[in-house]
Amino acid sequence: MKKKIFAKDIVEVVKKAASAESSKGMASCLDATISKIRAEATSLKPTTLDSTKRVGRKCEGPINFHKVKDGLSFDFSKQVYHLDELINFDREEFVEYAYLTVLKRNPDAGGFSHYLQNLLRKKITKESILLRLRYSKEGRAKGITIRFLMRGFCLSILYNIPIVGYLLKLIATIINLPKLSKAVTTAQKYTTELNKQQQYHLNILSSQVDDFFQNNAVDVESILAELTLKADSVSVERLIDGLNQKADKRFVKSIREGVESKADSKYVEQLSEIIKLKAEIRVVDSLRSEMIDKASLCDLNALEEALAKKVNNEYVEQLSENLKLKADTESVELLRAETKDKASLDDVRNLERIVAKKADLTVIKDSDYAEFEMAFRGSEEEVTSRLKVYLDVIPKLNGPKCGRALDLGCGRGEWLRLMATESYEALGIDVNTDMVAHCLESGLPAVQSDALSYLEGESEDSLQLITAFHLIEHIPFETMFNIFKQCFRVLTHDGVMILETPNLKNILVGAGDFYLDPTHMRPLHPLTMQFFLKKAGFSVVEIYYVDRKLISHEKTEFNELNDYVNIPRDYSLICKKK
């Protein structure tokens, strides 16, 4: 009805436009038309739903305890059901029927959405939904019996087990083949009967339609003729020509003036602000050029003085620390000059290396580093337990104290304590005074010295065993290579050297944990160390990964990312002089 009234209004406005004598009358008619069009369009707009509102299933209303699907009636008022009666339904229909069957009510919006989403995502089975509803507080109160529910639930769980579930499904299918064959036969009969009924109803409907058109043929022809007359293209073309002839240039001009008079003042203000900004930029540019031309040497000197006054205090503090380090070096040189006549050159070099080593440790106090190692290296008992793995590697000697062993960077003396039970006369050396004092207090032999200086003072072929646990990552490479050559010189022909250091092939160590110790210089690749140890003279250099046991490098594969995560965090180099 609204569309017919809208068409009549357009015809009336066109007639008024055709009979209008002035542009003013035309404008008023068009304004009235536009207002009517807008009102009509507003009334015809379809209502839209708020996208933020959730569209859920309507669950209110009275319960219908008898529903029909595909010609079959389903009764929700019973107290006893068979599991197969409910399993055959799908998706929304299954969830709705489950509520009506077990709880005797329509599903609530929250429960319906929850079960339906999990069912579609295959996170929950139909049997599980029925079991939850049946044994909920409300379900127990209703007391509905669903035969074979528990068996179906258990089977659905077993079917989801890999391999086992597949085999169970296969066995169940074989067992149920006679039932399935009978069900297929029944379905075929039902489908055939249903098709016959549909064909019968279609034939009846077709005959009724034919009878209707035969009895009302005259009325249909008259309707078609009337529609043809109303769809007259000639009248439409005449209407368009009439409107075009009445289009007045003065009316167009009045519309333009109206639009211009309604120009938004905010836009004008924005435009004026933009013009002002452009003007200011030009002024700034001109001022800058004038300042550059008038810049004098006096202005530059004043600027330099102002900048000099703002020197950062942190830079001054850093400069003072550098001066302190230089002062240590100068004191060593002064000491060398004073003791040139009173001490040997080896003693001076030894003292110089100790001072240089302390400078490399980023000026960390000996006591502070001892506490740091206690916190992050582990207790003495833990370290001693980890080092026992090397007892099977060291050369076996006949008789007590018949071999000499040297532990470079002995620390708290864990390895020295193990050597006390073996046939070795062991000695530990370390540059940290607190570590050496701790060893002496524990009754373990230790002296304060750097590794290279002490080795240079040893005679050839004098040691059967040299160890250095987590030492080489603390010293410069040149010093480390010289230590390797000195170790080869002082070892006997069947002597052994054991080195242990963090394993950078473990990505957690190489990417972060290695730098936990501020005195660490750089991670060392096992193959690099093997190469330079052989260059130093060792004929056999074996690489092992250390994790309560020694894992050979040659038997370790790195094929996946997890191999670089699970690899032990330390590796050792067992070097033999043969």
Description of the structure:
With 578 residues, the protein is of the alpha/beta class. It is 60% helix and 11% strand. It has helices at 2-19, 23-44, 83-87, 91-102, 109-120, 126-134, 137-142, 149-159, 164-175, 177-215, 217-230, 233-245, 249-261, 265-294, 297-309, 313-338, 345-360, 366-376, 380-387, 414-419, 433-441, 451-456, 477-490, 507-511, 526-535, 561-566; strands at 66-69, 72-75, 80-82, 145-147, 403-408, 424-430, 446-448, 463-469, 491-502, 540-546, 550-552, 570-576. The strands form 3 sheets. Strands 7-6-5-8-9-12-10-11 form an 8-stranded mixed sheet. Helix 23 links the parallel strand 8 and strand 9 (491-502). Helix 4 (91-102) crosses helix 5 and helix 4 packs parallel to helix 6. It is elongated and about 130 Å long. The protein starts with a helix and ends with a strand.
Features:
single chain; elongated; 11% strand; 12 strands; two-stranded antiparallel sheet; 60% helix; disordered N terminus; 578 residues; alpha/beta; 26 helices
**What is the number of helices?**
26
What best-fitting shape do the alpha-carbon axes yield? Answer: elongated
Number of DSSP-assigned strands: 12
Query: What composes the largest sheet?
Result: 8 strands, mixed
Unreliable stretches covering 5 or more consecutive residues: 1-8, 20-24, 45-60, 262-266, 294-301, 306-316, 339-343
Strand content: 5-15%
